[in-house]
Write a structure and sequence with these properties.
With 132 residues, this protein is mainly alpha-helical. Helices cover 64% and strands 0% of the residues. The two termini are 14 Å apart.
Length: 132
Protein backbone atom coordinates (compact mmCIF):
# COMPACT_ATOMS: atom_id res chain seq x y z
CA UNK A 1 0.00 0.00 0.00
CA UNK A 2 2.44 2.59 -1.10
CA UNK A 3 1.39 6.22 -0.81
CA UNK A 4 -1.86 5.32 0.92
CA UNK A 5 -2.70 5.09 4.59
CA UNK A 6 -3.36 1.50 5.62
CA UNK A 7 -6.88 0.78 6.93
CA UNK A 8 -5.57 -0.17 10.34
CA UNK A 9 -3.83 3.22 10.57
CA UNK A 10 -7.17 4.95 10.04
CA UNK A 11 -8.79 2.82 12.73
CA UNK A 12 -5.88 3.43 15.09
CA UNK A 13 -6.12 7.19 14.58
CA UNK A 14 -9.84 7.10 15.31
CA UNK A 15 -9.24 5.13 18.49
CA UNK A 16 -7.01 7.98 19.70
CA UNK A 17 -9.86 10.46 19.24
CA UNK A 18 -10.88 12.41 22.36
CA UNK A 19 -14.42 11.08 21.90
CA UNK A 20 -13.33 7.44 22.14
CA UNK A 21 -15.24 5.30 23.21
CA UNK A 22 -18.40 7.37 22.61
CA UNK A 23 -20.87 7.11 19.75
CA UNK A 24 -18.67 9.12 17.41
CA UNK A 25 -15.80 6.71 17.92
CA UNK A 26 -17.98 3.84 16.77
CA UNK A 27 -19.58 5.73 13.88
CA UNK A 28 -16.41 7.30 12.48
CA UNK A 29 -14.71 4.03 11.50
CA UNK A 30 -17.86 2.98 9.69
CA UNK A 31 -17.90 6.35 7.94
CA UNK A 32 -14.36 5.50 6.78
CA UNK A 33 -15.77 2.24 5.39
CA UNK A 34 -18.55 4.13 3.60
CA UNK A 35 -16.05 6.55 2.04
CA UNK A 36 -13.73 3.70 1.00
CA UNK A 37 -16.59 1.75 -0.61
CA UNK A 38 -17.74 4.83 -2.51
CA UNK A 39 -14.20 5.52 -3.71
CA UNK A 40 -13.45 1.91 -4.69
CA UNK A 41 -16.79 1.38 -6.42
CA UNK A 42 -16.91 4.66 -8.31
CA UNK A 43 -20.50 5.19 -7.19
CA UNK A 44 -21.63 8.77 -6.61
CA UNK A 45 -22.65 10.66 -3.50
CA UNK A 46 -26.36 10.11 -4.09
CA UNK A 47 -26.02 6.67 -2.49
CA UNK A 48 -25.24 6.49 1.21
CA UNK A 49 -25.11 3.89 3.96
CA UNK A 50 -27.02 0.68 3.40
CA UNK A 51 -28.12 1.59 -0.15
CA UNK A 52 -24.50 2.27 -1.16
CA UNK A 53 -23.35 -1.09 0.24
CA UNK A 54 -26.17 -2.97 -1.52
CA UNK A 55 -25.34 -1.32 -4.86
CA UNK A 56 -21.56 -1.71 -4.54
CA UNK A 57 -21.75 -5.39 -3.54
CA UNK A 58 -24.85 -6.41 -5.52
CA UNK A 59 -24.34 -10.08 -6.43
CA UNK A 60 -23.85 -11.21 -10.02
CA UNK A 61 -26.98 -13.16 -11.03
CA UNK A 62 -28.09 -15.10 -14.11
CA UNK A 63 -25.34 -13.69 -16.29
CA UNK A 64 -26.09 -10.11 -15.24
CA UNK A 65 -23.15 -8.16 -13.85
CA UNK A 66 -23.26 -7.35 -10.18
CA UNK A 67 -22.02 -4.34 -8.26
CA UNK A 68 -18.55 -2.97 -8.89
CA UNK A 69 -17.13 -4.57 -5.74
CA UNK A 70 -18.94 -7.92 -5.94
CA UNK A 71 -16.68 -10.94 -6.40
CA UNK A 72 -17.79 -12.55 -9.67
CA UNK A 73 -15.65 -15.58 -8.83
CA UNK A 74 -17.44 -16.28 -5.57
CA UNK A 75 -20.48 -18.51 -5.21
CA UNK A 76 -23.81 -16.63 -5.29
CA UNK A 77 -24.54 -17.13 -1.60
CA UNK A 78 -21.12 -15.80 -0.67
CA UNK A 79 -21.73 -12.71 -2.78
CA UNK A 80 -25.08 -12.20 -1.07
CA UNK A 81 -23.67 -12.45 2.45
CA UNK A 82 -20.84 -10.05 1.63
CA UNK A 83 -23.46 -7.52 0.53
CA UNK A 84 -25.44 -8.20 3.71
CA UNK A 85 -22.31 -7.91 5.88
CA UNK A 86 -21.47 -4.44 4.60
CA UNK A 87 -25.11 -3.29 4.62
CA UNK A 88 -25.56 -4.61 8.16
CA UNK A 89 -22.43 -2.85 9.38
CA UNK A 90 -23.78 0.45 8.06
CA UNK A 91 -27.26 -0.11 9.45
CA UNK A 92 -26.10 -1.20 12.88
CA UNK A 93 -22.99 0.88 13.58
CA UNK A 94 -22.86 3.89 11.23
CA UNK A 95 -26.46 5.03 10.79
CA UNK A 96 -27.47 5.32 14.46
CA UNK A 97 -24.53 7.57 15.32
CA UNK A 98 -25.24 9.66 12.20
CA UNK A 99 -28.70 10.51 13.52
CA UNK A 100 -28.31 10.71 17.29
CA UNK A 101 -25.82 10.41 20.11
CA UNK A 102 -25.06 6.77 20.75
CA UNK A 103 -23.20 6.02 23.94
CA UNK A 104 -20.93 3.01 23.83
CA UNK A 105 -20.21 2.86 27.55
CA UNK A 106 -18.15 -0.28 27.09
CA UNK A 107 -14.73 0.65 25.66
CA UNK A 108 -14.19 -2.98 24.62
CA UNK A 109 -17.29 -2.87 22.41
CA UNK A 110 -16.17 0.43 20.86
CA UNK A 111 -12.71 -1.04 20.19
CA UNK A 112 -14.28 -4.12 18.59
CA UNK A 113 -16.34 -1.92 16.26
CA UNK A 114 -13.14 -0.17 15.22
CA UNK A 115 -11.52 -3.56 14.56
CA UNK A 116 -14.56 -4.67 12.57
CA UNK A 117 -14.34 -1.50 10.46
CA UNK A 118 -10.65 -2.23 9.91
CA UNK A 119 -11.53 -5.72 8.62
CA UNK A 120 -14.14 -4.26 6.26
CA UNK A 121 -11.60 -1.70 4.98
CA UNK A 122 -9.20 -4.55 4.22
CA UNK A 123 -11.96 -6.35 2.29
CA UNK A 124 -12.62 -3.18 0.29
CA UNK A 125 -8.92 -3.00 -0.58
CA UNK A 126 -9.02 -6.64 -1.76
CA UNK A 127 -12.13 -5.95 -3.87
CA UNK A 128 -10.48 -2.89 -5.40
CA UNK A 129 -7.34 -4.93 -6.26
CA UNK A 130 -9.42 -7.82 -7.63
CA UNK A 131 -11.44 -5.55 -9.88
CA UNK A 132 -8.54 -3.41 -11.14
Amino acid sequence: MTGKKAPWATAAAISQSPSFPGGTAAGSPMKAVEVAVRDASGLDNSLVGVALMRKAFQPHQNGKPGGPLADAGAEGGEQEVESALFAGAMGRYKNPSSHRTVDFADPIEAAQIIQFADLLLRQVDRARARNS
